[in-house]
Amino acid sequence: MKKYIIIIFFLLFLSCSTDKNSMVGKWEIISLQSERGNELKEGDYIYTYELKKDGTYVNHFEDDILEGKWTINSKNKTIEFDEGFKVVKGSYQLNSTILSLEVKKYLGEMHDTTFGAIFIELQKLN
Fold it and tell me: What is the pLDDT of residues 31-61, one digit of tens each?
C-alpha cells in the first residue's frame, strides 16, 4: 500500500510540472482579442513571449522588450504574468503547440477595465 501511495504522489508531482515544462520556450501570439474586438495590429511584426524555466519571461513587441515573472497553477489551470506594477492573470489551456489564455490586466491591485477580458492564442515556435 505504501508503495502505491508513493507512486501516486510521484505521478501527481509529474503531472503538475508537465504543463510548466511544456510551456517553457518561445511563443508567438497569433490571436489577441478583447471585449473591444481584435487588438493585433496589421503589419510585419512579431509579438512573442519567451517563457523561461526559472519562472521569468521576456515579451518582445516591435522595439519594446518587457521582462517579468510567470507562474502557473496546473491544478486550477491558472497563469500569472507579473511585471511589477502591471499583472496579467487568468486561466489557460495547453494543447500541444497552442497555448490559449483568458486573462485580465491589473495595475497594482486594481483591475484595468480598459480591455475587459483578453483572449490570447499563442503558437510555440521551434
Answer: 888 888 877 766 666 789 999 999 999 999 8
Whole-angstrom distance, CA of residue 83 vs CA of residue 58: 10
What is the separation, in whole angstroms, between the first and last Cα of the chain?
43
Within 13 A of 97's CA, how many CA atoms are on the CB side?
A: 7
Residue 7 cell numbers, joined = 507512486
Topology (CATH level 3) of domain 2-124: Lipocalin (2.40.128)
72, 23 Cβ separation under 8 angstroms: yes
Q: Which tens digit of pLDDT belongs to each residue from 6-21?
A: 444 444 444 445 789 9
Question: Which of 90, 81, 40, 89 is CA-nearest to residue 61?
Answer: 40
Task: Report how far apart, in Å, the C-alpha atoms of 52 and of each of 4, 78, 100, 111, 117 are.
Answer: 33, 17, 18, 26, 25
- DSSP reduced 3-state for 79: strand
* pTM of the model as a whole: 0.78
